[in-house]
Every structure is written in structure tokens, then in C-alpha cells.
Amino acid sequence: MLEGDTGLKKTFHIGELSKLLGIPKSTLRYWEKAGLITSPRNTENNYRKYYPSTIYTISDLAHYRCLRMSLQDMRKLPQLSPHELADSLIELDHNLDQQLEELYTAKEYIQRKVQYIGEYKRLCQNEYQPEDPDYNKVYIFSIDDTDAWSEYIKDQYQSILLYHTEDDRIETGLAVPTSENPPPIWEKDRNAFYVSFVLKVGYSNPSKDDFKPHLDNLQSRGFKITNILARYLFSACDDKYYDYYKAFAEVYKEK
Predict the structure, then answer these.
(1) Could you tell me the pTM of the whole model?
(2) Do 65 and 140 belong together in one domain?
(3) What is the residue range of 243's domain?
(4) What pLDDT score does 145 carry?
(5) What confidence tier does 48 reach under pLDDT thresholds 50, 70, 90?
(6) How far is CA 17 from CA 73, 183, 186, in A?
(7) Domain of 48: which CATH number?
């Protein structure tokens, strides 16, 4: 932007300029350190002083920062032709589209997390009610499988704990297969029915003891339990940090 008859006083110190433009003093210092602006020092007190021409430069930088332009690209602005500026803005627009897509995805997962907490509240009020798992298979979660970790980071709801009651062991799995296409470690049994409940385990440290109270409770009702599956919901504090799961007991009536 060109400097015209501004009607402004000749110079501003950094505090005045920060207040005038609504830009933090730390940002002004950072832009100066990055070489985007210059501010000569007042010989009497060594304070920075800004001339009207610099103020216009700063306002332009603030404008492009609002457009989410990077510092590196802002540094190139004075050397860009009209065509080059258009290309730069088109690329910026494309990058913003990608960021928007990522933000929408993040928003979707946030909304899911809120739903999972709502599901936890529902289960607390209706324990051991008949309900089928919303997945048909569980696949092994190998600790050295990059794709498995990618799925887990993207959506932790895919994480499953599988407790085998007959041989008293816990496996960690996913409700979706990875590119390595591992064989399932569990498949839904049509001859069984399932009851749901909340499973609370130590943070990142599930123990067989976490399953035992539920197992004992159901067995006392005359049920034969072969597996307990638990789908991760969230982690939160209740005197200490816990993982909360939506669990399903695989139930058979004793003959």
C-alpha cells in the first residue's frame, strides 16, 4: 500500500503502534527480527520508532496474516509480480481447503467423543442390558504395526480389549483390519447373546482384575461367559486417571 497524506504524527513508539493496530508488541518485535520491518532507534532513549510508511507495511503484513499466509511467503511479497501474487494466493487457498478439511474431521471426532461420554452415562444407568456389539470382528493390534497405530490415533474408538475367560488372558485389538490384513482374533457368535456395561481400567494398564467383578456378577446369574470385549470410549479422572470402555459380555445360558 502506498503512503499518502496520512495526517498521522511523524513517528510512533512500539506501545502506541501496538494499541493503534491491535498487534501485540511481541509480534512487532518478531517481524522486525525476521526482517519484515525495520524500526530505527530514538537516539535519546533508544526506543523503537515507527514512521507512517512502516505502519502501512505492518498493516499489510497483518492483513496477510489474517489470510493465514506464512512468514516465509510474506517475506517474498515485495518481490512478487501480479501473476506471481495470484499464484501465491491460489496456493494459499488450496492449503486452506486442506486445513478446513482437517478441521472438519477434528470437529467430527470431537462430537463423537461427546457422544461416547453420553453413551457412558447411559450405560451407568442401564447396566447388563441386552445389546449387540456394533462390530463383527476384532483384529490383532500388533505393537509394531504402523497402520494399526495410524488407525488408533485417528479414531481411538476402534481400540478393543478382548478378555478370554477360559484361559484368563487379555488381547488388544482393533475393530477394523489394517493393510497387513491380519486374521481376526474374535468373531461375533450368532449362538451367543451380549450384555453391555461400563468397564473402568487403570490408564493404559488393563488388568484381569478389572474384568473379574463383572464376570463374577454375571456368572452368579447363571450365565456362561466366554469372552468380554471392551471398546474404548475415553479417559478421565475419578480420584485417578482411568480408561473407560463400553464392554460386552459374550453370554451363553448354562445347560
Answers:
(1) 0.74
(2) no
(3) 121-253
(4) 87
(5) confident
(6) 24, 65, 66
(7) 1.10.1660.10
